[in-house]
Amino acid sequence: MFASKTRSICKAISWRIVGTLDTMALGWIITGDPLLGLKIGALELITKFVLYYLHERIWLRSKYGIKK
Length: 68
Prior knowledge:
This protein has 68 residues and is an all-alpha fold. It is built from two helices and no strands.
């Protein structure tokens, strides 16, 4: 089984779009301030993109749960 780095990046980007929109909406709902929701979402976008990519690459090295 092989998954390219490009595939991992595409998955990270698509997931971050969904996750960041959710975070922005929750930030807005909780604070009542749409600008603060956008700021929280922007910061979260960067940190979680990097963390997801690293997480994905680490799991690709693991054989846990993979049957031949």
